[in-house]
Design goal:
Elements: H1 16-19, H2 61-70, H3 76-87, H4 101-111, E1 116-124, E2 129-136, E3 141-148, E4 153-156, E5 160-162, E6 177-180, H5 183-198, E7 211-214, H6 224-235, E8 249-253, H7 257-265, E9 271-275, H8 281-287, H9 296-310, E10 314-320, H10 328-339, E11 347-353, H11 367-379, E12 384-386
Parallel strand pairs: 4-7, 7-8, 8-9, 9-10, 10-11, 11-12
Antiparallel strand pairs: 1-2, 2-3, 3-4, 5-6
Helix pairs in contact: 2-3, 5-6, 7-9, 10-11
Bound molecules: S-adenosyl-L-homocysteine.
S-adenosyl-L-homocysteine binds next to strand 8 and strand 10.
């Protein structure tokens, strides 16, 4: 993480006092929400956390075979275990009858240790939206959401317990970062949903996961290695992984510029979503504090570079907040910022009606303002969609995941 700013210590979000007297190119200081101190930006997880148990989903097929050989078992057992996990979606050792009964417990304990326990599942939309609260091995809590549509099923996964990016309108951001999740912990959220769909537990008959979005808790690019591992496991052909199409995977980021560039070099054409939320530095410094490190121009340039390198259209996420970022002139400015990199179809805008979070001073835009915002973007040739707010009533929509017990 050496190319990220001040990696070894929490970086305090700037305050008015900090920026006074700083160089003239610095953007104006953000105003903290009334009564609330600005939260610090945290790039690295706290030291000293225990590592989650190693699981086959953390390893490549070869590494799994090595591990099994180390236990004095034939290497092909790794493939059998992988088939149970990724293809048959089996989690009960009793069903793994192709493994010799005497060694089954040892193999399962070594390669398929329990990673998380569901504490609570909440349903909406007649059971087709399901949010699960998971307890990880060390008691950390995370949430994932399964959304089934007539033509697809999307799992929204968490990549960190908590989040260090401190966006003031997002529920997850308010609790800070507890720790990074492991590759297997990320993958297991998808496998659990795949299992429920496969077993016909979700209305609509047996089905499969077609899409995974890294839009749950956490900043995926701040946990780069584990997230890349998870993307590989999701897209590796069975039994190495789940065999999903990379096109079905979306990684959403606040805009860690060096990591966006690194993702572009990985050669896995996932969709990149950039949480922009404002087209100007002054406002974005407040809404997305990492903007004080990487400006709108640098961030949008990295997104454009990602589109150029991967040939995948980038999605600009923009949570519409009444009276804050939803003015007609900001729609025009947003279009101009994006168009400055050309109109070759590299980008589209996805407006998210702000989902309410406890204590937030912000509310969703007036529908008329939202329509005008869409109209202005489209008038300038920017394809624009408005995201649905599935799962809102179970606090399962974007930015509402807070993962508390009780
Ligand atoms: N850290 C990543 C992914 C997690 S959030 C990121 O920021 O992109 C997924 C999306 O939900 C982001 O675009 C985020 O800005 C948005 N979001 C957060 N809080 C929200 C809220 N209260 N209402 C609507 N969208 C919100």
């Amino acid at each position: 993480m050496s190319d990220l700013p001040s990696p070894s210590r929490p970086v305090p979000a700037p305050t008015a006092a900090d920026s006074a007297g700083s160089d003239a190119s610095a953007a104006p200081a953000p105003t903290p929400a009334p009564g609330a101190a600005a939260l610090p930006l945290v790039m690295e997880e706290p030291r000293g956390r225990r590592k989650p148990p190693r699981h086959l989903a953390d390893l490549t097929l070869d590494e799994r075979a090595e591990h099994v050989s180390g236990l004095g078992q034939p290497g092909f057992r790794a493939k059998q275990l992988s088939t149970h996990y990724f293809s048959r979606l089996v989690d009960d050792p009793e069903e793994m009858t192709d493994l010799p009964a005497a060694q089954r417990a040892e193999l399962v304990a070594a390669l398929l240790p329990p990673l998380m326990t569901p504490l609570r599942t909440m349903e909406a939309d007649r059971g087709t939206t399901r949010k699960t609260l998971w307890k990880l091995f060390d008691g950390a809590l995370v949430e994932s959401v399964l959304m089934r549509y007539p033509d697809r099923a999307t799992v929204c996964v968490s990549s960190q317990a908590g989040c260090g990016m401190a966006c003031p309108f997002c529920a997850t951001g308010q609790g800070g970062l507890q720790r990074n999740m492991s590759t297997a912990e990320i993958v297991e959220q998808v496998v659990a949903s795949a299992r429920s769909l496969d077993r016909g537990e979700v209305p609509g008959g047996p089905g499969r996961v077609s899409n995974v979005v890294f839009m749950g808790m956490g900043e995926p690019l701040a946990n780069f290695k584990a997230v890349i591992g998870a993307v590989r496991r999701l897209t590796d052909p069975a039994p190495s992984g789940l065999g999903m199409s990379a096109r079905g995977v979306t990684v959403s980021t606040v805009g860690l510029v060096p990591r966006i560039n690194q993702l572009a070099e990985e050669g896995i054409p996932v969709t990149l979503a950039l949480s922009l939320h404002a087209p100007d530095d002054e406002l974005r410094n407040e809404l997305v504090p990492i903007n004080t490190r990487f400006s709108v121009a640098e961030t949008v340039e990295a997104a454009w570079n990602y589109a150029r390198t991967t040939k995948r259209r980038v999605s600009i996420e923009y949570a519409m907040m009444r009276g804050i970022n939803d003015q007609a002139e900001r729609a025009d400015l947003l279009a101009d910022v994006l168009l400055s990199y050309g109109d070759w179809g590299w980008v589209h805008v996805n407006l998210i009606p702000l989902n309410p979070t406890p204590g937030s001073k912000w509310t969703a835009s007036d529908p008329r303002d939202e329509r005008e915002f869409v109209r202005r973007l489209e008038a300038k040739g920017i394809p624009t969609t408005v995201r649905d707010t599935r799962g809102r009533e179970i606090d399962g929509a974007c930015g509402q995941l807070a993962a508390t017990e009780g």
